[in-house]
Amino acid sequence: MNFTTLPKIELHCHLDGSLRPETIIDIAKKEGISLPSFDIEEIQREITAPLECESLDEYLKKFAIPNLVMQSKESLRRITLELFEDAALENVKYMEVRFAPLLHTARGLDVEEIIESVLDGLKAAEDQFDIKGNLILSCMRTMSTDSAFEVVENGKKFLGKGVVAIDLCASEEEGFCGKFVEPIRLAKEYGYRVTIHAGETGIGRNVLEAVELLGAERIGHGVFIKDCAEAYKIVKEKQVVLEMCPTSNVQTKAVTHFSEHPIYHFHKDGIKVTVNTDNRTVSNTNMANECNIVFNEFNISFEDYKQIYDNSVEACFADVETKEKLKKYI
């Protein structure tokens, strides 16, 4: 199968993990931002995690430099536009991009300005390229509950205008869901959909709690339901969709090798899986590459691919009209 030309949908992609290295250098020069180097190859090394990366926490260190240049309206708009352009060039028809607004306040922007700037980039990309998209607002698990309320409240006015969901991300500790029950409950009342990073670092029970306590409709990664029977059961019975990211999962050591990734076993056992990049730059990947990995490791058929594509259509937080259009591509 030629995954470059096949239509694709991506549901799990972080904005700050998907910058072009040349854009980082260009913005830094224009805005007077200090970088460790202005050599593109050196910057590429600084922001790309190796496959032999030791952990999720080591992987997350690669986001420090990108966030330095994501502190102005212009840079946020440009970076978003370029990400959607890159996705459109490999025939991604729909993409949900997530970002944590509170990471972009260092130079005085408020949360509403940040969300507006990213939305402006998204809308510009939709006008220029054959792609549709929506935004997911991420709350950092390493921050306070109040910070999550701040994101929920400030993002509310953008619901139905490009913002569709709330997320919890960053370093994963056991039992984190209990801390965020109230802000996620409020988000649901306002109309946010819910996807939660969980089960990425050996804690399958976090997936169970994300579904039971937070009402997660989708789970980012969810690899470790393989080691938690209760989590596995609830994901399968409730048809909670897993946003799986093979390259990232090897880098963060959720799995040691691609061949050990549970995505195909989950798929064959009736769990709804989707294929995603997580971070295009940090993981040095794109959607065609992730699909090829799954194909090469598990020899998936076109019917397998179509089912995974259909899972993505059903699970995406787009409106009915967009979903109907996406169904017709394949």
UniProtKB/TrEMBL annotation:
<feature type="binding site">
    <location>
        <position position="197"/>
    </location>
    <ligand>
        <name>Zn(2+)</name>
    </ligand>
</feature>
<dbReference type="GO" id="GO:0016787">
    <property type="term" value="F:hydrolase activity"/>
</dbReference>
<dbReference type="InterPro" id="IPR006330">
    <property type="entry name" value="Ado/ade_deaminase"/>
</dbReference>
<feature type="active site" description="Proton donor">
    <location>
        <position position="200"/>
    </location>
</feature>
<dbReference type="Pfam" id="PF00962">
    <property type="entry name" value="A_deaminase"/>
</dbReference>
<feature type="binding site">
    <location>
        <position position="14"/>
    </location>
    <ligand>
        <name>Zn(2+)</name>
    </ligand>
</feature>
<keyword id="KW-0479">Metal-binding</keyword>
<protein>
    <recommendedName>
        <fullName>Adenosine deaminase</fullName>
        <ecNumber>3.5.4.4</ecNumber>
    </recommendedName>
</protein>
<feature type="domain" description="Adenosine deaminase">
    <location>
        <begin position="7"/>
        <end position="328"/>
    </location>
</feature>
<feature type="binding site">
    <location>
        <position position="14"/>
    </location>
    <ligand>
        <name>substrate</name>
    </ligand>
</feature>
<keyword id="KW-0378">Hydrolase</keyword>
<comment type="similarity">
    <text>Belongs to the metallo-dependent hydrolases superfamily. Adenosine and AMP deaminases family. Adenosine deaminase subfamily.</text>
</comment>
<feature type="site" description="Important for catalytic activity">
    <location>
        <position position="221"/>
    </location>
</feature>
<feature type="binding site">
    <location>
        <position position="12"/>
    </location>
    <ligand>
        <name>Zn(2+)</name>
    </ligand>
</feature>
<feature type="binding site">
    <location>
        <position position="278"/>
    </location>
    <ligand>
        <name>Zn(2+)</name>
    </ligand>
</feature>
<dbReference type="InterPro" id="IPR028893">
    <property type="entry name" value="A_deaminase"/>
</dbReference>
<dbReference type="InterPro" id="IPR032466">
    <property type="entry name" value="Metal_Hydrolase"/>
</dbReference>
<dbReference type="InterPro" id="IPR001365">
    <property type="entry name" value="A_deaminase_dom"/>
</dbReference>
<keyword id="KW-0546">Nucleotide metabolism</keyword>
<feature type="binding site">
    <location>
        <position position="16"/>
    </location>
    <ligand>
        <name>substrate</name>
    </ligand>
</feature>
<comment type="function">
    <text>Catalyzes the hydrolytic deamination of adenosine and 2-deoxyadenosine.</text>
</comment>
<keyword id="KW-0862">Zinc</keyword>
